[in-house]
Amino acid sequence: MAYHSFLLEPISCHSWNKDRTQIALCPNNHDVHIYKKDGTKWTKIHELKEHNGQVTGIDWAPDSNSMPPSHLSRYRLGEVWKPTLVILRINRAARCVSWSPKENKFAVGSGSRLISICYFEQENDWWVCKHIKKPIRSTVLSLDWHPNNVLLAAGSCDFKCRVFSAYIKEVEEKPGPTVWGSKMPFGEVLFESGPSGVSGGAGEGAGGGWVHGVCFSHSGNRLAWTSHDSTVAIAEGGKTSTISSLSSETLPLLCVSFITENSLVAAGHDCYPVLFVYDGTKGSVTFGGKLDVPKQTSQRGISARERFQNLDRRATSSETTEQGLESLHKNSISQISVLEGGKSKCSTFCTTGMDGGMVTWDVKSLESALKDLKIV
Amino acid sequence: MSKNTVSNRFRTVDVDEYDENKFVDEEDGGENQLPDIVHVASLTPLCTGNLMEALQAVLKNPPINTKNQNVKDCAEGLVLKVLSAFKSSDVDKGVQSLDKNGVDLLMKYIYKGFETPSDNSSAVLLQWHEKALSAGGLGCIVRVLTARKTV
């Protein structure tokens, strides 16, 4: 696990290029910085300054090398190292952005309760956008595309996670049927997490939180989302009412990603990533383990003076001298991205957080280091 | 003068009600079980000293969906009674006997109880809080804070 501290400010969002040698990130201001990896060091090679509001989301399209950071003002610039203005026709902040798998369109989630799907129109030589409005009732916080390039999962502040169809007939052919449905006109809702959000789980803990992170599995048949009420849930397409969820004992998780078809890594306000395992046959999600186990510091005896000091400060004379967090990240982790192996057999993933640092995690070494961890 | 300057009924119209962007919470409606039934179900074991059963009974069917404040207050009073009847050493066992949802629900009642402190309630609730926290973790408290349907 390599921890690299880029800056003191929180990293609002990041994105890697295709061969993972360059990373674009936003240090919580109006710019986008691009860093290039030189051995173990990172050097800043570009600074993109065309935005006039805080950059809230970045997504680097691996093949075409264009990158639309979304930000708090209404326009968005897509950069092919030259800025192109895309007008989104929204009257609130743009919150998150994501290129589709085939890179012919991208989706922007915003605070004006809609998702803008933008595609390039050849005849007029500019980017056009279409809106998905119903039935979204609040800010869209996170987006993830299904591998078929048409379905889009969106998590929003109205406590629901939905799968929409973003089929644009101008740029693609009709998609074949999937487990989520077969009729997919633009804007159709193919799945919505119900009001109780769970089945056979916490019946009265009804759908309580903003949906922070969503992620499709590699095959697109499973959808996972994390919510502000400290739950993580997985739905399998085709069986509409089976949503398995787990109320975790940690603080809310902000981001989630599948690393194999059955395992997810999620991270959030607790500053360490955790593993969840989904059992398709039983339809249950279980907690797999913390992925950040700090080295055990040697236990030294606690002196009488320290004991009284602890009593004074913390009302307990316990031995643990936790001066700070023991995890690698010292503040909430806001984004997880898969570096190598894709979502089906991830071998490395990366997390960035509010502490301005980025950590790359290697799955193999995690598995060997943490004995009880099993990634199925 | 023309007619429409006389009427000023429009001044009492609540414009916000007609705003199409207004967020309306999903209502489940449906009155819950009357508190009497819960009352009886939990008092019997309470009287006989079977506190575990009393705990289970009082945590069944919480008045979450109802908007009747009386029902909620009643339920809350009952829960408080049961919680205070436990001995300090038994609190731990009580918490262990609950499942995950039970712990979440218990935590909700504990925080509700904190809102209206009476002579000894806070001390008792704090003990329960400590045990429930070790069973449910911070996620449990987060769920109390984010729950849209309160107990």
Automatic annotation (TrEMBL), chain A:
> Which controlled-vocabulary keywords does the entry list?
Actin-binding, Cytoplasm, Cytoskeleton, Nucleus, Repeat, WD repeat
Q: Which residues form a coiled coil?
A: none
In alphabetical order, the GO MF annotations are: actin filament binding
Entries under Pfam families matching the protein: WD40
Q: Which domain of life is it from?
A: Eukaryota
**Predominant cellular place of this UniProt entry's protein:** cytoplasm
InterPro entries per UniProt: ARPC1, WD40/YVTN_repeat-like_dom_sf, WD40_repeat_dom_sf, WD40_rpt
Q: Which family does it belong to?
A: Belongs to the WD repeat ARPC1 family.
Which protein, by its recorded name, is this?
A: Actin-related protein 2/3 complex subunit
Q: Which organism is it from?
A: Oncorhynchus tshawytscha (Chinook salmon)
Higher taxonomy = Eukaryota, Metazoa, Chordata, Craniata, Vertebrata
Per the record, the gene is ARPC1B
From TrEMBL, chain B:
One GO CC annotation:
Arp2/3 protein complex
Gene3D superfamilies per the record?
A: Actin-related protein 2/3 complex subunit 5
Q: From what superkingdom does this record's organism come?
A: Eukaryota
Predominant place of localization = cytoplasm
Q: Does the keyword Cytoplasm apply?
A: yes
Q: Which GO terms describe its biological process?
A: Arp2/3 complex-mediated actin nucleation; regulation of actin filament polymerization
Does Nucleotide-binding appear among the keywords? no
Molecular function (GO) terms listed? actin binding
Arranged from A to Z, the UniProt key words for this protein are: Actin-binding, Cytoplasm, Cytoskeleton
Q: Which residues cross the membrane?
A: none
> Where, per UniProt, does this protein localize?
Cytoplasm, Cytoskeleton
Q: What is the role of this chain?
A: Functions as component of the Arp2/3 complex which is involved in regulation of actin polymerization and together with an activating nucleation-promoting factor (NPF) mediates the formation of branched actin networks. Arp2/3 complex plays a critical role in the control of cell morphogenesis via the modulation of cell polarity development.
Q: Which family does it belong to?
A: Belongs to the ARPC5 family.
Q: What is this protein called?
A: Actin-related protein 2/3 complex subunit 5
Q: Which organism is it from?
A: Oncorhynchus tshawytscha
Q: Which gene encodes it?
A: arpc5b
